[in-house]
Design brief:
about 25% strand, 3 domains, Alpha-Beta Plaits, homodimer, 6-stranded mixed β-sheet, Maf protein, globular, Molybdenum Cofactor Biosythetic Enzyme, Chain A, 5-stranded mixed β-sheet
């Protein structure tokens, strides 16, 4: 089973956009046991795409194309592939209905060219796009399968997960299946994790262990290649137990689509605890991260953004003398912020963030210094000092992740 | 002058590494007036690379290869290219001296395989590597030029800047340069923008117009290909004037690295205005977006996250009767939130967000309904109702963008 990925878009050839779709698709296809032999990028040029398809036909069983499904005249992927295999384009009724619905509820006018997005290749399977308007197609001709997906990653990824993966699993079943499990860790770097697990990683054959570093966390993918599902799960259970023996304290949850905020909100719900926040350098990023989770209103009612000295006094009623004496980037300020926020919002738990996001130091403290306070009903309030690095955005994100972990550990009592 | 980029490395095909080298090289080559027609990724497999070189020879004047110059057995790029053009590999003395110097100052033992890194293709020009050990080669054979560079971006980039760029400028002097300008638009979709500019786009030759849709905004890149910089800027000025005649009302700023929040914060600074917010469904995302901008403390002191009915009353002092009578997703609530936030934070301008992020409807209002309030000192407070779509995250981001645009328009109006 040989596959290749063709990304269509002049913006990629001009270096304006990075081809992250090829990376994403490669990882997904590998996971399905489909080997990728080539990535190619070609501009919005039907002749060159047609030439490329001629080559790809001969060397690949599956050709995944991304980009060029949009409404404008330079979106030519569908037309070119259809012409190449001597098929026509037809309207997909489900995509058309979605388009009309979209523009009914939209502030933008629906221009005629949008209809192009609802065309698919006749004889193929329409792939619906949950987060966009361009419909995809999966079609097999002369033993080659063509899969057409849109270019924007925020459309391509959900389409792949929800609609393409099940299709490919059905079309291209593997004698041995890949059974995998993702473990997520917070508070340990990739190089340290790999060092701690060196013996396990060096001796891996089946199941395999693949570490993957993401911003502020590391995941481990355990994968068994085996015919029998039950036996595969047992292999993964055994390996997971060994991993947990070594680095279990940093483990927070399972799954590709999981996140620390998700696990933290679930823990709060499960224990019936509410949370609030007072944010200085993070400026609402912690609360906004909570807001990403649907149903968070059960545990989060609101909170404060106190970016300046004045708002720390005005909104939270913090003693100006304390701020003057201790400074705003201090243990005392973090504790006062958390305590006052908890009382004012009448919540079970409050977290506070005060520190130096940069680019300049503040109150003589270096960029990346962050105090995080944690106030719990019936518990002494504590604050921890962290030193983060890289840029402004990363420092603020790192602070939010640490705040989530403090709350999660407090709630599940894994202090 | 046609170029293509071939990246060699199985890790790219497995989705473990993103091909940022192709993006970097494309941008650099475009800047030198060299047009890139293809990117290809191939694994560490000499036969497939050899096949690819056979195709590339026919279609490109310049073939840039990156990756596969290292010390290990799977680093085969140099051997494959040399064999392809019937040349041999020779030791580069300068790279060899550097290798010995490196290991003299290193704690690691120099293993024999490191010598492979100092080999270049006989008859070519050696490209020294200021931050690594693998030497590159530039060689022309049968009117095709091959440029071999290492894979690690932290080696490839300095090599390109210091040693490759001057060579290419000398070898391929361009009569014409590419001069480009990016215009940014908010409040108009890509399909509508393209429809409005149809005549200009259909008749483009030089300069060209390339639209690009991003979440909640559209950019237009105007590009002139011309020998004289001044004449090029004049061409772009003329085209920009025509674009502005049609869609100027949606234009908010210039440049690839710009953003609506950046322009809005700059406008606030310029006019000496401060801003605050009361956020319900956005849950701090507006304020956090402001917090991304360094130096925002001059115009932003803090604000409120009032996710529940209770916190709207407690934090902002909104009349419970109003909330009961009008509902929280209402014009009256948005206006009260903005007015109260402005007063409590003593700011010049306040924005408020209240609406339905989903997945379920709220107070009988459909998912995506958002009221955004705008309170300005000395002006009547207003609120607009927007209907956004897609998912929770997109609805909240869309609301934040609209809030920024309302503030920007309010501030620049009073010039």
């Amino acid at each position: 089973m040989k596959a290749e990925i063709i990304a269509v878009g002049t913006e990629l050839l001009l270096g304006q956009v990075v081809n992250t779709n090829a990376t994403f698709l490669s990882e997904e296809l590998a996971d399905l046991g489909i080997e990728v032999y080539y990535h190619t990028v070609v501009g919005d040029n039907p002749k060159r795409l047609e030439n490329l398809l001629g080559e790809a036909d001969h060397r690949s069983d599956l050709i995944v194309l991304c980009g060029g499904l949009g409404p404008t005249d330079d979106d030519l992927t569908k037309d070119t592939v259809a012409a190449h295999i001597h098929h026509t384009l037809v309207q997909d009724e489900q995509a058309l209905a979605r388009l009309h619905e979209f523009f009914t509820f939209s502030n933008n006018a629906m221009t005629e060219n949008n209809l192009r997005q609802t065309l698919m290749i006749d004889g193929g399977i329409a792939i619906q796009n949950p987060t966009g308007l361009a419909v995809g197609t999966l079609i097999t001709k002369n033993e080659t399968t063509y899969l057409l997906l849109p270019g924007p990653p925020n459309e391509l990824k959900p389409m792949f997960h929800h609609n393409v993966r099940p299709l490919l699993e059905e079309r291209f079943p593997q004698a041995e299946q890949l059974i995998s499990r993702v473990l997520r860790f917070y508070g340990i770097g990739e190089s340290q994790l790999v060092t701690e697990l060196k013996d396990l990683i060096d001796n891996q054959t089946n199941p395999t262990i693949a570490p993957y570093a993401k911003p502020n966390e590391v995941t481990l993918r355990l994968t068994a290649k085996i015919a029998d599902e039950m036996a595969g799960q047992q292999l993964l259970d055994d390996l997971e137990a060994k991993v947990m023996d070594t680095v279990g304290d940093y483990f927070y949850g399972y799954g590709d689509d999981n996140s620390l905020v998700n696990v933290t909100v679930e823990a709060l719900k499960e224990h019936g605890k509410t949370v609030t926040a007072a944010e200085s350098l993070t400026a609402g990023l912690f609360q906004s991260t909570l807001g990403d989770i649907s149903g968070v209103s059960k545990v989060f009612k609101g909170g404060f953004v106190t970016y300046s000295v004045e708002t720390k006094e005005q909104f939270l009623g913090i003693d100006p003398l304390l701020l003057k004496k201790e400074g705003t980037v201090s243990e005392a300020c973090a504790i006062a912020m958390a305590e006052q926020a908890r009382k004012l919002a009448d919540a079970d738990i409050a977290v506070s963030f005060t520190g130096v996001a940069g680019p300049n130091e503040l109150e003589g403290q270096p960029v990346g210094t962050v105090w995080i306070g944690l106030a719990e009903k019936g518990q002494p309030t504590v604050a921890v000092c962290q030193q983060f690095n890289r840029d402004r955005r990363y420092i603020r994100q790192s602070a939010v992740m640490k705040g989530l972990d403090l709350i999660r550990r407090a709630v599940v009592k894994k202090k």
